[in-house]
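User: Fold this; tokens only.

Assistant: Input:
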Amino acid sequence: MIIRRLIFGILMLPLYHLSGLWRRDPDIWVMGAWYGRRFSDNSKHFFRFVHENTTVRTIWLTREKKVLEEVRSQGCEAVLTYSLKGLLFSLRASCAVVSSGMADVNRYVLKGALLVQLWHGVPLKKIMHDINRSPVSGMTVFLTRILESVCPCERERYHLLLATNEPMRARMAAAFNMPPESVIAGGYPRMDALLNPVAPDLELYQVLKERFRFEKLILYAPTFRDDGDFDPFSEACGWDPSALEELLERTGTLFLINMHFISELDSEAGAADRSGSRIVRLLPGDLPDSTPFLSCVDILITDYSSIFFDYLVMDRPILLAPFDRDLYISKTRGLYDEYDEIAPGPILMRWTDVVAELASVLDGNDTCRERRRQIRGAYVGRVDGRSSERLVTEIRSRLSKRH
């Protein structure tokens, strides 16, 4: 994979350097997310804001025809990343916005454009240069360094990086090896969208509500594992769908399972596959953008996913289920903070404990309100619906200094 990227990167070098000579239009911005395969995350919600509230021509870049149709159906402009139109728009764009990495857009023709990284969550797991244990081999790391030194278009270097607040601004600057003045604590567009979701983002909720007629909705959303070698629905984790089903039936609750889309996990979820079950496992693509959907969720269960930072905005119960905690922390990339110190809810190590805690919460016992507010203040800061507005102002200011 790395060798192929190296060869392709070398072949693209002339085009990359030529793209630096192209005259770029300050009123054309290209955006993308998740390697060009999804219409989601901070990029998506910033894209919508710019499209609806400014005169900037915004172009969504994607590799997927399904995403192309989705964006266009919402009245926005989208093109395939490596099509002729995608190439021309990328050459003309003065700004490129991503939320995962440069693979979200066309990295080979953006020399001279302002590169903006919005990222995809408040970092709980260590990211980028802060990862103290690489999930890949030493040879892969070595070849990646060669790739980035030979091919500047393969580097993950940005002119502007977004953080939620001042403490996270310092963390993000260190993780991306960027000067503090290149990082702004403007808040996340996707958290604004959580407070004010639009109809297209809630279509799944309407479908589920009509089908299952539930009173409460629980979302289980664990993060991915770098090695993909973990099944939370195993006997070792105490998975017992019958006990959970009994609680769900008694309380009129739906239990939704949404595995991380880049996870390789393909385990059986037991009762999730039975007809009439109140345990429903979503398929990849059912929920491409989970953040606005959180506005419909009554209880969130997760492990090491930064999704709980987003959900703090709703001030609703959060249960932590890090079933493989010791193994995960000792053998993967590591966490920035002690897990107990940042937990906004009870830490539960088996499904039997989760079911017992759910029963208590569904009966109205929410004992962690103050704890959630403390964590929100430390990691999320203000969410006032104006993060995209602040970001537009910052980008325009930086573009004006370039032209």
